[in-house]
Amino acid sequence: MPSFPVGANLKGGRNAAPVNAQLAREFYEPIIPVVMELHSQGLSLRASARELEQRGIKPRQEFPQWSAAQVRRILCRGLGKPIDVKPDRSEPVYVEPDEPAPPAPPESPYIQLMLNGKPKGLFTKSQVQEMLGTRKITFDTLYFFPGMSGWRRVRELFGDRPTTAKT
Asked: What is the pTM of this model?
């Protein structure tokens, strides 16, 4: 099997990004007016998703059904700006911090991680660091501990520095 030079995936991703963006614009162009109409009627994101399905409009990339998140992204495209939506309380909320998150207490058993869309565990800081080192999680994995106002990225807990965990 051929091996690729280090960083080839990054170069490929940079080259593919404009093509993917253009394909998305072309796909969503005829759908934006429909979503804007549903929004003006006061339908929620979920109700709009159901309506798109009832109208036979297929979601992008072979998704089986429309989600509220997909409708929100189309709505953002139509409005030309991000929108504030009351979060569904069953889903975690990521809070973009105005200032760095307070560090977790060392070896605190209270750190939770968002894994596969669900809050998991009570991990210590060293366990989270080991999971970073073994690539079970990434710097973009969300974490939470008591006293925080919302979920934050692990990057804010450790910074972007490599970990010293055993591989």
From this structure: 0.44
